Amino acid sequence: MHLPQCVELYEVGPREGFQSETNPIATEDKITFVNELSNAGLKHIEVTSFVSPKWVPQMADAEAVLAGIERVPGVTYRAAYLNLQGLERALGNPVTLDGSLVLSASDTFSKRNMNKTTREMLDKLPEWIAAYQAANIRVKQMGFMASFGCNFEGYIELEHLLKLMGDVINLADSHGEAIQKVKLADTMGWANPEQIKRTVCTIQDKWPELNIHLHLHDTRGLGLANVYAALQEGLWEFDTAIGGLGGCPFAAVKGAPGNISTEDVAFLCEQMGIDTGLQLDSLVECAKLAEKIVGRELPGHLAKGGLLSNIRPNSWMQVQGS
User: CB-based burial of residue 231 (10 Å sphere; 0-12 exposed, 13-18 middle, 19+ buried)?
Assistant: First the structure.
């Protein structure tokens, strides 16, 4: 076991969290929420998504939200986009673009989410690379939705995922780009800790230069267990959402918990002696604000259970070392 000394959490609540809500959320509430996240110490915030308002009406105010937030120095503000039209909109707005090539490891989910098969999406990647290069953005990242399993196809074979990864790495290389990071998304909550370890270790052995970033869901309650398994293999980048907001509107799991909770992951790291640079009390307040905005209780635990620092000052790791 080699735990990282520090972890970076990438907050996706304002985008993936809010897009799953059926009741309209006021633009001003979105802006206030992002501002509070910035003040809580989060350094990476996915603010919105450039998608069709016909399919995701909650994101129709993307430009207004980006124009209204208070930008804190040192914080990167990102936005999601699924097609080249979305990328074009993103290029016209003040957001950090990662130069990412994204596929789904599940063909069925790819057709449901992006209206194209995985093969068709792979064939379009040269257009994505050209668009990034035209905007002077280096292509350094690849991402795979449904990396571990899919409600429509079952478990994703690791060899299939590795084949897709190799295809993207080789394609990028043929266009003068070098992939440095892979983001693996457990879009529908299929992963288990042993699967996480096996996948991570296999990728680390095959491509030791790749940084592995995880996007985990808590659909069936294994979110934090999967985080812990990843931490044991030295992973240090995770997507999270305040309060456990979110989920996937195309995943066919209605009412299930969403993304892993930012405050719960930060608390786990704190208890293990891993630095996140985040203020737990501020994250708890953000979770309470999120519940107020969406008008319902969220699945995150820390806001309900309370901070242990209110009872004792030291983490478990500090106590063990004393």
Answer: buried
